[in-house]
Amino acid sequence: MRPSLLIATALAAGLISTAHAQVASKSSSVPGTGAQEGGNQSPGEANRFAGPSPSAPQAPGVNAANLPDDPQMDMSQATPMVPQQSANPAPGDWSAYGHDDDATRYSPLDQITPANVGQLQRAFIYHTGSKPAPGQQNKWAAETTPIKVGDGLYTCSAMNDMMKLDPATGKELWRFNAGVKYHSIPYTAACKSVVYYTSSTVPEGQPCHNRILEATLDERLIEVDADTGKACEAFGFHGQINLMQGMGESVPGFVSETAPPPIVNGVIVTNQEVLDGQRRWAPSGVIRGYDAETGKFDWAWDVNRPDDHNQPGPGEHYSRGTPNSWAAMTGDNALGLVYVPTGNSAADYYSAMRTDKENAVSSAIVAIDVKTGSPRWVFQTVHKDVWDYDMGSQPTKIDFPGPNGSTPALVVPTKRGQTFVLDRATGKPLLPVEERPAPTPGVVPGDVRSPTQPWSTGMPRLGFPPLKESDMWGMSPIDQLFCRIKYRKANYVGEFTPPSIDKPWIEYPGYNGGSDWGSMAYDAKTGILIANWNNTPMYDQLVTRKHADKLGLMPIDDPNFNPSGGGAEGNGAMADTPYGIVVTPFWDQYTGMMCNRPPYGAITAIDMHTRKVLWQTPLGTARANGPWGLPTYLPLNIGTPNNGGPMITAGGLVFVAAATDNMIRAIDMKTGKTVWSDVLPGGGQATPMTYEYKGRQYVAIMAGGHHFMMTPVSDDLVVYALPEGTH
């Protein structure tokens, strides 16, 4: 085989995984000029686009455990919080999803180093027991990072069962069966982590002094005793709270929780993923606070009712279709704030029906006061977002180094590859941000685009320049020509190319570009920030309501909804608006290869003292997949799409999986070179963690796979350690 063809074949690794997962079906394609069939409808046409009645009932099964309504608490009765393990983790612990309250993903453990990491071996594999049953559509993507506190390794299955394991052997010490049903899975069966909480009212040694908390796919909060796994009876209703209260009309799977809720000054703060692409009047993106001890409702932040922090009364519900937040939030006990990464209002690709209040807080970081539920500041990363650039990453708290000392700061990654650094107290940028002209006015009737968009000019961008026709790629000259033709057929004027109806438009960066839910890792001692990211453009087109119906695009609450015909990613009905959306990767659908040249994923080290790139390298090899879905088994490091984050240790290593080659690797922090790797039993779309137990350091990764990335699904938590006695 000629070298050029060999390399081109290898470049397909990871592309099948991204491509097929983002389309409504393998046979769907962008419809072209016929998408205008039926003409344009006005947003005000009759009552066609009106929201549901406030008194419309929730479907059976939405209140999964038939929990009673939760009473609102008098804030004067709020339970004070004692210092938590995650505020200052013991050296050998990993006490929170991001290691600590700062979400640094950094561990002070240094037993494993570049010199000895080559001796890492599997210590044990634990099976969570959660994966698709025969005949079930694969919606699994566990995305789990365990936590370790004291003598317990705590984790959750993709379907929200909670477990305590022996940290040395993986022996299951207890298991709490959450009872989540298959029909409650939204876009993904995932549980990113659990939360460890120490009570201020229950004495040490008594049940539920230490607790494990999770939020579930079927919208419950659950607290159990950390030692026994038994429900904490004094929390909510026998240990559970119904989070569908006040949400109004819905069906199972429309609203869910996959991220661990932070506890800030004794308040559990919840957000929820609302399934994208369904309808304008989807359930609310409301943010809520609950007492960590009793589970009683504290407050709500409802975007369109910003001054009403109460629960809705009878026949009422929270404002529908408001921007939802599905990413992991970060708490700040000192400032009494929770930093909420927001997404778009419902109907991602059409903004003409959004309110001014919604436009002001979408695709932003909103700092909410945990005593009142009121925003203290807002920093927006995209104005009037119609590209699905919602905020997927957990922000990281750092002490930002400056000439006159450090400033409490927040590092904010985005899907655009723009990284913003903000003052935690005020939301003001600590590094330059420019409002640059953006393509306007747009071509969709009545949907005007913002004339400018924010650019973080003080940080290196995780991405590449705008696409050119000469960037088109392929296995052969014919494939490259095919991609050139697709490029010419689409609207593309660079980043923020407005949506179009007459023909497709190229979205670059794509909605899976830049940093997503894996977030970043930060070493405060060296000031080094580590980020892995994607480089995958999309090929999108709006279609009229008539054409959307013809394509069979129905929302999840429609009796004719096809679970395999569209969802959170890819084609969407966008019911209650004049348009549906067709989304595909910008790819050669015959070979499954992307049309842009590689790499399609990379990992970067940035010195936060100088804001310079220390090293950058493609992330992911061609070994596991290739054109037409065939694995190439080639070890070429060409960079594949990736989901899941990095982890740093004081031993001078970065551990990361994430890529579609199903590998976990250790990278030398100084050089960026991979010094160890292992092939996992499933896709490594999760963030690794590390802990110490009885003098031995372990590294754990959930190799659960990911339906979106088309990597193998497993229920394997894989844990590594050096051989006994190694130094």
TrEMBL record:
Signal recorded as keyword: yes
Residue segments, region Disordered: 23-106, 431-460
Signal peptide feature range: 1-21
Gene Ontology CC, one term: membrane
Domain Pyrrolo-quinoline quinone repeat: 94-699
SMART domains tied to this protein: PQQ
Highest taxon of the lineage: Bacteria
Short name of one Pfam family: PQQ
SUPFAM superfamilies per the UniProt record, alphabetical: Quinoprotein alcohol dehydrogenase-like
InterPro entries linked: PQQ_b-propeller_rpt (IPR018391), PQQ_mDH (IPR017511), PQQ_rpt_dom (IPR002372), Quinoprotein_ADH-like_sf (IPR011047)
Keyword Oxidoreductase among UniProt keywords: yes
Compositional bias (Low complexity): 50-61
Residue spans of biased composition, Polar residues class: 74-88
Keywords: Oxidoreductase, Signal
Cofactor(s) the protein requires to work: pyrroloquinoline quinone
A molecular-function term among this protein's GO annotations: quinone binding
Protein family membership: Belongs to the bacterial PQQ dehydrogenase family.
PANTHER family per UniProt: QUINOPROTEIN ALCOHOL DEHYDROGENASE (CYTOCHROME C) (PTHR32303), QUINOPROTEIN GLUCOSE DEHYDROGENASE (PTHR32303:SF4)
Protein name, per record: D-sorbitol dehydrogenase subunit SldA
Species this chain originates from: Tanticharoenia sakaeratensis NBRC 103193
